[in-house]
Design brief:
globular, alpha+beta, single chain, 8-stranded antiparallel sheet, 7 helices, 5-stranded antiparallel sheet, about 250 residues
């Protein structure tokens, strides 16, 4: 059984835990503000196994973050423990040249209340609160617009860029999935030279004002429209920044 109280303490959530829309929104935002998206185990050659219990232990007991399979896998377990109805969804992330990635490239969540919602705490920079799983509706959060578009028998999450253009973030279907189905792609993203996660170390977390990102040896802090960058000059400084900015100790 999951230690729900320990998980809620990890994400600094002190609100009500009734499985309703208000709780879903607050706990989703709390998770993104407390737990970083990071791929640091990959560069450390530490194997990540598709196991719900391992995901939860890493995030709660290890005070770490993770990438999509870990973050959304653990979050799904928390939501179920609170009484929410959750379905795992397979998503495909567009490649640099525009083609779609493979099935199980990304793990997202469907949460069913009076209507269906798309939840995702494991994509890095995206929406802070769940999106209505409804097509043809623009949904605004903190000055940014999102929408879900139906096309070619798939659904597509899109967001607006600064110039107003729409950018596709990932594509998915509503077919229910089980965690073991993601194992092969979880292994691929840890081992393949083609995976973005084997090419550089990344740790990033949302803040109330924007975002803090450590990308290899560059620290990037955004507050609204303001962006500051700082080069990290040593491995010790890199580890110090990990601890001070993200609470992560390797």
């Amino acid at each position: 059984m999951m230690d729900v109280a320990a998980y809620l303490e990890r994400i600094r959530y002190t609100g009500l835990t009734t499985p309703d829309l208000e709780c879903l929104f607050q706990i989703h935002r709390a998770h993104l503000l407390a737990v970083p998206f990071e791929n640091l185990d990959i560069s450390q050659k530490r194997q990540i196994v598709c196991d719900e219990g391992a995901f939860v232990r890493k995030i709660v007991e290890g005070r770490r973050g993770g990438f999509c399979y870990e973050m959304n896998g653990a979050f799904a377990a928390l939501l179920r423990s609170l009484g929410f109805r959750v379905t795992l969804l397979s998503a495909r992330v567009p490649r640099a040249h525009g083609s779609e990635g493979p099935e199980f490239d990304h793990l997202a969540l469907r949460v069913d209340l009076d209507e269906a919602w798309l939840a995702d705490v494991g994509f890095g920079e995206l929406f802070l609160e769940p999106l209505r799983l409804r097509t043809g509706v623009e949904q605004e959060q903190a000055g940014r617009k999102f929408r879900i578009v139906a096309e070619n028998e798939s659904l597509h999450v899109e967001r607006t860029l600064r110039d107003g253009a729409w950018k596709r973030e990932y594509s998915f279907t509503l077919r229910p999935r089980e965690l073991p189905e993601f194992a092969a792609m979880c292994h691929y993203h840890q081992t393949s030279a083609e995976s973005p996660f084997t090419r550089k170390r990344v740790c990033t977390i949302a803040t109330a004002e924007g975002r803090v990102t450590l990308s290899d040896v560059k620290l990037i802090v955004t507050r609204g429209d303001r962006r500051e960058e700082q080069l990290i000059e040593s491995e010790q400084e890199w580890r110090d920044v990990l601890k001070s900015q993200f609470g992560v100790v390797l």
